[in-house]
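S.,

Sequence below, as promised.
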Amino acid sequence: MELTRRNFLEGSVALVAGLVTAGVAATGTPPALVAACSYTQPASLRTIAMRRLAFGPSPELMAMYDATPGASDEERFDNWVRQQLNYTAIDDTPCANRIASAQLKILYTYNNRTVNEVRPLSWLSASRETLWQQRVVPDLHWIERIRPYNEVRVATWIRAVYSRRQLFEVMVDFWHNHFNVNATANQRIAATWSDYDRIIRTHALGNFHSMLTEVTKSVAMMYYLNNVSNKAGGGEGGNENFARELFELHTLGSDNYLKFYDQRGNIPVVEYGSERYAASYIDYDVYEASRCLTGWTIANGSDGRPNTGAFYLMESWHDNYPKTVLAPPPLPGIEPAPNFPFNHGTEQDGTKLLRLVAYHPGTARHLCTKLCRRLVADNPPESLINTAYNVWMQHRESPDQIRRVVEAILLAPEAKSTFGAKIRRPLEAIWAFLRATNASLPNDVAEVNGDATKGNYWESLFWSVAQTGHRLFGWDTPTGHPDRAEYWANTNALLRTWNSFYTLAQSWGGNVGIDIVGQTPAGLSCVGIVDFWLQRMLTYTPTGDLRTLLINFLAQGFDPNQPPQPLPGAPDWRSPEAVRDRIVAMVQLLAMSPEFWLR
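The prediction came back faster than expected:
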């Protein structure tokens, strides 16, 4: 059965209510259980900006938003969106300094030599050729080879938690999922991962055709989907893995796929201006596209190629015969002639193919639907998709095509009036918790109390979060992480993420520094403490039962208009430490609520 948003809300709040009930059992006055919780109050544009255009509010980001000029709330929101989209103008020096000072441990034994070092993130800006020569070619231990991948993971966490360019980081995450590559599927992928990440970051708000071209030529995609070995052969040609995902995932999408169909002359035609395309693709388009890409490979030292890791055109591998890809029939029922002529050339065939699929109207609708789903709602309104589609098609040649499309989506009335139509995925919820609590991400150390097997906090952090099912750069299939609530609103993802709000602060779970009590203003009543953290974590004070439940949990039967007090008996025994633990637990409970998870 499909899990609806209401099912998710009812189930998770029932659990929170049960925890609260257990927490106050000692007083004999448990609060009434809540049957369901829903977001009933209209979301402010400030809330939408913090919860959907960022990985969550932080004190710094909220102050930046509040300082944005605007004669009205809507004008301030519009200006904020445009500022975030002009991300290079945002001073992100503090985040850059954190990346520069980050320390990541490396520990292994190889050829009778033990290496136990704490190193900076030195491979983030290395060129592809440098990464290939120093991480792929030499005789290295596996952990040395994948070091660039691990460094990018650390840098990605730092940017998600601390960067002021939040909308840009949201878009980088979107494109990494769209062009998903499992970074550890091949040692060459992991070794050159900072190059792939740089491609995504360079084009995240740029031009889609340019990004598609660079992704296609990357070491990561070449090896992940096997076009590195695609050469002319019998039957259906060479390796079609990349060509199939190029159509099904990266461009037109499976909605435009005519399965088990081979009548090209009967495929409907879609037009845009003077351009004519076959409206849908069939298996033969995939086979022919694979032939277009024969000879597109990597200089890996094999078959007479250089060993540099650069993109390479292997002319002797190319299929020079005519090809037909997405060609419209001249008349209904008439098979189209090949639109890739004989002996067109290795580079020319691939270049023409990528332009053809990038410019296709089906690609525009597929990508705009995905963007609206990521930025607005699991089921975005068709009117919003149409708005994005029109901007996409008008700016296919523009260097800032994607930026224009994202701006059109976010400034549309449908986006401004929608909230709570998505939930956070596990990693997004964790990043939001860390941002709201002003957490300090760890730095590794070589040893702890003389024990060299300890001190690798980043590794512990990655492992802990991976248990939620949300694996950064580690999704196995080319589809990327799902982006709908029904996939993530399940027992494993929710419970493991809820547990992480506690485990991340432990030395064995990541050693993240989170000082909730230290950030709570002294002398506040139970009501004041709850309201403080509601504003910090949600950006608003909810009118439903959540606030009452949290206040009752913190008060434990005492006057909620006074500061929290320790219980005279078990489990507190009048200990002030018990009150501090209760404040921390209250914030963790808040992070488990549907109100926190909604976007």
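The beta strands are 104-110, 113-119, 269-272, 275-278, 296-300, 307-313.

Coffee later?
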